[in-house]
Amino acid sequence: AAASYTDSSDDETSPRDKQQKNSKGSSDFCVKNIKQAEFGRREIEIAEQEMPALMALRKRAQGEKPLAGAKIVGCTHITAQTAVLMETLGALGAQCRWAACNIYSTLNEVAAALAESGFPVFAWKGESEDDFWWCIDRCVNVEGWQPNMILDDGGDLTHWIYKKYPNMFKKIKGIVEESVTGVHRLYQLSKAGKLCVPAMNVNDSVTKQKFDNLYCCRESILDGLKRTTDMMFGGKQVVVCGYGEVGKGCCAALKAMGSIVYVTEIDPICALQACMDGFRLVKLNEVIRQVDIVITCTGNKNVVTREHLDRMKNSCIVCNMGHSNTEIDVASLRTPELTWERVRSQVDHVIWPDGKRIVLLAEGRLLNLSCSTVPTFVLSITATTQVRRLGLDQALLWGQQPLTPVSSPQALALIELYNAPEGRYKQDVYLLPKKMDEYVASLHLPTFDAHLTELTDEQAKYLGLNKNGPFKPNYYR
């Protein structure tokens, strides 16, 4: 039996049951309300101000249309920032169809603005599980449409095409995947010998790792918690599960606010970093009874189990900052003896028979994108990296050298540069060159009025470097 559930939100007609058209008469989209397009357009325009590199890219490459002929099917968070990315892809010549990778993170007005400007977008905030897969299918399964590139965040779109449309999957030129979870799923395919398209690792490029994962989470974790719970952070005991880039960002922010922070970790190197940064390394069982907040950042499954949830103290806040909603075993809480109360949007109280309650945020899904927003500037960096991986400035960045295949078991996501000549990339997993990361970073420096030092010829020779980079070897982390 399902848990009893009180929900204050009024029941509305599903967007799937509405007949909507944009001003040009097209109905090839499914959003909450097309009439919100004007509000969404303003949000996109604000985001453009904070995304200098993408706008520069758009301006510079618009004449060349380097993505002409690209048919990109995408599954990402649909926010003002990703809208700037999508419209940039369109300006560079690509045809795009888009769905949301998270049932809560879509900004309805932004989806409406994209639909109004002619993008086939299938997404709204608060989709059901069934809606989620229906939207993905509507992106993919279209008469006369054969995508040749996939831009994915979490691997669900890739998985859907691979499972349901194997012939379509074989014709894909490359896949861009930007989450730890999706990277892991792709590697599993590769290991099983079922990967029939070239692959590269997007998540592990430095500009993605540091900016989107570390700095972005450092800024948005507090925002997500504050908006949902109005809590005070000083003196609170918090356990952060995982000390990768996301965990590091969360811990830094909470420590700065005066919280007492514990860390759990499986990797001895990350564990040692946590200790050196002044955090107490523990097992979850050791602190579960005393902590006020539990935050998962691992990309793994069942990190917080029903047993942990049973032992938490009253009013403990439980949330997830990793991509997947598998880290907290939410399914185990949907049992008859527990009562669910919807307190406000994205906030549930789960109440035990003895009256104890925990505060579950976003039903265990991504906290910052479900419950707040993320800084636009860092997304400019990530999005620029993605566009470049879709084939821009290829000669400048890659020259004629193919990338180095990776065989390590931590790997990795897939991409194929849209303009790569036949045969350059095999059915393998590839690492991205440092030169590209450095170039993306350099595009953002003018925003800070920052001035790079240039090596003299003598200094460059002494270090054995090219004056223009790359400045670090590919294996540098």
Automatic annotation (TrEMBL):
Domain of life: Eukaryota
GO-annotated cellular components: cytosol
Binding-site residues, substrate: T79, D153, E178, K208, D212
CDD domains: SAHH
Enzyme class at the top of the EC tree: hydrolase
Catalyzed reaction equations: S-adenosyl-L-homocysteine + H2O = L-homocysteine + adenosine
Region Disordered: start-end pairs: 1-28
Pfam families: AdoHcyase, AdoHcyase_NAD
Cofactor(s) listed: NAD(+)
Keyword set includes NAD: yes
Entry keyword set: Hydrolase, NAD, One-carbon metabolism
Single GO BP term: one-carbon metabolic process
UniProt KW NAD keyword: yes
S-adenosyl-L-homocysteine hydrolase NAD binding domain ranges (all copies): 213-374
Record-level Gene Ontology MF annotations: adenosylhomocysteinase activity
Pathway: Amino-acid biosynthesis; L-homocysteine biosynthesis; L-homocysteine from S-adenosyl-L-homocysteine: step 1/1
Known EC number: 3.13.2.1
Cofactor remark from the record: Binds 1 NAD(+) per subunit.
Binding-site residues for NAD(+), renumbered to this chain: G244, E245, V246, G247, K248, G249, E265, N368
Protein family per UniProt: Belongs to the adenosylhomocysteinase family.
Protein name as annotated: Adenosylhomocysteinase
